[in-house]
Amino acid sequence: MAAAGSTGVVLVALGANLGIAVAKFTAAAWTGSSAMFSEAIHSLVDSSNQGLMLFGIKRSARPADEKHPFGYSKELYFWSFVVAIVLFSLGAGFAIYEGIHKVMDPHKIEHVNIIYAVLGVAILLEGYATYKAYKEFNRRRRGRGFLTALRQSKDPALFAILLEDFGAILGLIVAGIGVTVADQMGIAEADGIASIVIGIILACIAVFMAIEIKALIVGEAADVATQRGIFEIVAAERGEDRPILAINEIRTMHLGPTDILVAASVDFRDGLASEEVEATTERLETQIKARFPDVRRLFLEAQSVDAHAAALADEADHEAERSGADPKDVKAGLEEAIESGVGSKMSPGDAQKQTTLVTARPKSRKGRKRARRNKG
C-alpha cells in the first residue's frame, strides 16, 4: 500500500514537472529571464529525479537472491541519495551560476506577461502535485508534527517528492518576485538575485535530503510505536509460568520503507522442550507479522542473560578496537541502544534489572573470560 502510494505521488509529480519544464524553457528563451531559465533547469532536474525515484522503486522490489539474501529494498535509499546529489550539483549549482552571471551582466527582460502566465500555470500544476504528495504524507504521519514526521519517515520516495514540490513552489514565488522587481522597478539585477535564491533553496533541500537518506542507508531502527508493539508481543510470552524468562534485547532496522528486520535475544526457561521453543518462536513471528506487516524477517536468539551480557561486552570491545573510540563510550552507546529498544518499554523494575545486568559485567576481556571459566 505504501509503495503504491509513493509510486502514484512520483508519477503525478513527474507528469507535472515535464509539462512545466517545457513551458519554462520556452518562456526563458523568449524573454531572456535568468530566473525563468533557472526555474526551467529546476523543473528538468526534478523530472530527472522523479525518473530516478521510479527506477529505484522498481529495483527495490526485486526478490532476494543468492547474492542479496535480504533482497534489494535498500536500492531505493541509494537512488534517493543520488537524487539529493543531482539536486545539489545540477539544480542548485546551475541556478546560482546563472544568477551570478545575470547580476554581473544584467539586461532587461522582454515579454514579461509570458513569464507571469507560465508562472501562474506552473504554480497551479505544482500546487496539485504538492497537494497529492502532502495528502499521502499526512495519511502516514499518524498525528506527529510535520517536521518530526518528515525526519522519521522511512520512505525517501515520498518525502523527497514532497520537499521538491515545496521547493518548486517557493522557487516560483521567488522567480515571480524577482521578475516583478526587475520589470516594475527597473532593477535588472533582481532577476539574477532571484536565480541565486532559487539555487540556495535547492541546496538546502538537497543537504537535508542527503542527511536524512544517509541515516537510512546506514540503518535506522523502526519507529518507537513499532518497537513498543514488538516488545509487548514478546513480553506476553515472558513470566515464571511462560516460556521466556527475560528479554535481553530487541533490535530493529529498516532495509526499506516497508521492509523491517527484527533481531531479538531472549532467555528461555531452563528445561524447556525444543518443541515448545519452536512453537513459541512460530507464535511470536505470526503475531508480530500480523500486527506489523512491514516486518519481513524475524530472528529470535535463545541466549541466557549472562551470555548476552558477555557477548554485548565483546561487541563493545570489538567496536572500540575497530573504530579507535573509547571503550567506555562504545559500551555506553550499546547500553543506550538496548535501553531504547527494550529497557524504555519495560516496567521500572524490569528496566532497573536490565540495566544492572548490562553494567555489572566484568570490564576487561580477561576478567569476563575468567568469570565464564569460574561459572563453568
Question: What features would you describe in this structure?
Answer:
With 376 residues, the chain is mainly alpha-helical. It folds into two domains: 2-218, Cation efflux protein transmembrane domain (Alpha-lytic protease prodomain-like, Up-down Bundle); 224-375, 2-Layer Sandwich (Alpha-Beta Plaits), CATH 3.30.70.1350. It is built from 13 helices and three strands. The protein is elongated.
Task: Give the structure's gist in a few sentences.
The chain is mainly alpha-helical. It is built from 13 helices and three strands, in the order H-H-H-H-H-H-H-H-E-E-H-E-H-H-H-H. Helix content is 72%, strand content 8%.
Core attributes:
Alpha-lytic protease prodomain-like, elongated, Alpha-Beta Plaits, 376 residues, three-stranded mixed beta sheet, 13 helices, 2 domains, 3 strands, mainly alpha
> Beta-strand percentage?
5-15%
Structural class: mainly alpha
What is the top-level CATH class of the largest domain? Mainly Alpha
CA(first)-CA(last) distance:
52 Å
Largest sheet: 3 strands, mixed
Which range best describes the helical content: under 10%, 10-25%, 25-40%, 40-55%, 55-70% or over 70%? over 70%
Secondary structure layout plus pairing:
Elements: H1 2-31, H2 34-60, H3 75-104, H4 112-140, H5 146-152, H6 156-184, H7 189-218, H8 224-235, E1 244-256, E2 259-268, H9 274-291, E3 295-302, H10 305-323, H11 327-341, H12 348-359, H13 365-375
Parallel strand pairs: 2-3
Antiparallel strand pairs: 1-2
Helix pairs in contact: 1-2, 1-4, 1-6, 2-3, 2-6, 2-7, 3-7, 4-6, 6-7, 8-9, 10-11
